[in-house]
Write a structure and sequence with these properties.
Arc Repressor Mutant, subunit A, homodimer, 4 helices, mainly alpha, 3 strands, DNA-binding
DNA sequence: GCTAGGTGCATCGGTAAGCGATGTATAGTT
DNA sequence: AACTATACATCGCTTACCGATGCACCTAGC
């Protein structure tokens, strides 16, 4: 059996395809932690992530994710039609959300420690 | 429109379903960093992760992942039929793999900083 | 010699989810 | 009038997790 080396895939392309996979799980943590601090709405969350991480947050990812969070009772929602801008759907963290955020956070810490241990003596 | 709160999903269940998603991206980084240090084989990698992270690494996840890495030229493989044990498929990091690992690592660092900034003033 | 458990590899298929493309609507700018 | 930014949302193609399952070998205990 012969395994063909795939040279069409540059390292940059591989990285580009890996990024969303990596983003996947931690994105939810990021959003929950963000909402722990202040209520926010979709577009602002995306802007926030773009600025603080210089990472894209496609709308096709964000809005379904927020709906799932709402479905699972992690956030409460409220439409804000006041003001001059477009109507905003504000998200507020719930108790369940806070609880889950803290569990995710400790999981993050565990991975963080393991990663650091690996890069230490390379 | 009414959004039904899904109480069947306990926070523990939500966390359990989230974990593999979170594991998803960083797992590849972990394996590449591990292979940067020494060549290894599937079963050993799984054991290693289980010990250092107390995290499960299902075989249905691991072996397809390793095949993808091989396909993309991130690792070189070599069967070891010597010794008393079962034949082992050893994985060695390639230059492409090393390059990608370093890119992933800096991405990890960026997320790490952002996360830390969020949990600081909660 | 038989059986159970550990080692070591692998695939299949049901399910979940990313996200590019696309759509709608309003406000402000050129 | 045209374009950009704000703000929401869905569709469907594709990727990938992982529980279940299977094969093969080795060692230990009865």
């Amino acid at each position: 059996m012969q395994m063909v080396m795939n040279d069409e895939n540059s390292v940059e392309q591989l990285f580009a395809r890996w990024q969303p996979q990596a983003r996947k799980g931690w994105l939810e943590t990021f959003i929950l932690l963000l909402l722990c601090q202040k209520r926010s709405y979709g577009y602002e969350i995306a802007t926030n992530l773009r600025q603080s991480l210089d990472a894209e947050l496609p709308e096709g990812t964000l809005y379904p994710l927020l709906r799932r969070m709402q479905r699972d009772g992690l956030v409460d929602t409220e439409w804000d039609t006041e003001g001059s801008s477009n109507p905003r759907k504000y998200y507020t963290i719930s108790n369940r959300g806070r609880e889950l955020a803290s569990m995710m956070q400790s999981e993050w810490t565990r991975w963080s420690q393991t990663m650091r241990a690996l890069e230490k003596d390379q």
